[in-house]
Amino acid sequence: MPLLQRLTYVFVIFVLFPLVIWTGLALSPAFISAFPASVTLLGGRQSARTIHFFVSVALVLFLLVHVTMVCLAGFRSRTGAMITGRTAARKEHT
Amino acid sequence: MIDLSRRKLILTGLAATAGASGLAMAARLAQKYGLVPPDHGGIYGLGETLTFASQRLLTRHSLAREFPRSQISPRPFPNELAPLTEDFKRLQAGSFAEWRLSVDGMVAQPASFSISELKSYPSRSHITELVCEEGWSYIAEWIGVPLSHVLQVVGVHPQAKYVVYVSMEPDTWDSIDMADALHPQTFLCYGVNGNELPVAHGGPLRMRLPRQLGYKNVKFIARLTVTDSLKKFGKGVGSAASEAGYAWYVGI
Questions:
Q1: Among B35-44, B111-120, B208-217, B218-227, which stretch is predicted with the lowest mean pLDDT?
Q2: B35-68: pLDDT as tens digits
Q3: CB within 8 A of A29, min separation 6: which ones?
Q4: In Å, how far is B129's CA from the nearest CA of chain A?
Q5: Cα dihedral sign for A12, A16, A18, A20?
Q6: What residues of chain B, 58 to 87, have a C-beta less than 8 Å from chain A?
Q7: How many CB atoms lie within 10 A of CB B15?
Q8: Main-chain phi, psi angles of A72, to 5 degrees
Q9: Strands B100-105 and B111-114, how do they pair?
Q10: Which of A30, A39, A46 sits opposite B59 (nearest CB)?
């Protein structure tokens, strides 16, 4: 797996997903009544909302590129590998 | 071989029984502690229930964020109003002197109050955000009498579980559980930013609960009914909004 690809996955899993969950919770008036810092750290409700939208757009873009790459690498074998944990064609790995 | 499969069978059976009875127990406990919202049926029902139950456990007594006076929004946005009814216009022409809020249901003394009677009760205010599902929000100082005070005046039965509130606007009503009804920031609101509550914002009387989205803050409140079950109200899902497909609990 190339470095760029690895970095992208690390970024999506450890930055984008936590951020989209955090900014989502910060939009809940009940949640922020118990944890006010969750929204003040983001600079208030409307900034949380803006970040939430930008991150969700980034996640959708990632999904499109991700699925496109799966299709290019062989949709059937990649999806099979995802479910069974076995790689049918080892050549696809580099 | 036979031994193994019999053991497997027994273990699987035990696990399934434990799982099913665990779920049944969880459902009964949730029912008992008021963690099941009235709109728990349908495709979204499970999600609504999990949201409501977890937020009730997490935020039963938490207070909505309050802001300094300097952060009050310069132009509070009044959302679009349905055309006012003739009855409303007649009351408005008389400066709402004839406006009555009636309170009935599971109370010791059903009563009705004029706006000036409500204003004679201890007045409270908080500077909080009103948050719409559409995304916009604004901060204002809301002035009113805590709903808990009015409920205390009429004497709520201990079995009461919900307060249903009905608007002068046709087909507009909603309900909250006692946790929200008795919450110190839940107001029958008659003023905003130091002035009378304008009609555009729900004057003369609006429900104000800052821990839920804007549409729960119903305008033109004319009637409260205290009850232990929402089944008899409309289609039994708790509010006109939930009948239209919106969530009943919107702490979100």
A1: B35-44
A2: 999 999 889 999 999 999 999 999 989 999 999 9
A3: B64, B129, B131, B210, B211, B212, B213, B251, B252
A4: 9
A5: negative
A6: 58-59, 62-65
A7: 10
A8: -65, -35
A9: antiparallel
A10: A30
Whole-number Cα distances in Å, B131 to B32, B139, B215? 31, 9, 9
With beta carbons less than 8 A apart as the criterion, state whether B145 and B121 touch: yes
- Looking at residue B108, its pLDDT comes to 96
A55 CB burial (10 A radius; 0-12, 13-18, 19+): buried
What integer is the mean pLDDT of A40-69? 95
State whether residue B132 is helix, strand or coil. coil
Q: Kindly give, in sequence order, each residue whose CB lies less than 8 Å from that of residue B130, ignoring residues fewer than 6 positions away.
A: B76, B137, B138, B139, B140, B210, B214, B217
CA distance A18 to A16: 6
> What pLDDT, on a 0 to 100 scale, did the predictor assign at position B63?
95
pLDDT at position B2 over 60: no
H or E element that contains A50 = helix A45-84
In this prediction, residue B33 carries a pLDDT of 87
**A37 touches B at CB < 8 Å:** no
ipTM of the assembly? 0.85
Q: Which two tokens stand for residue B198?
A: 């304008």
CA dihedral B79, B85, B90, B93 (to 10 degrees): 20
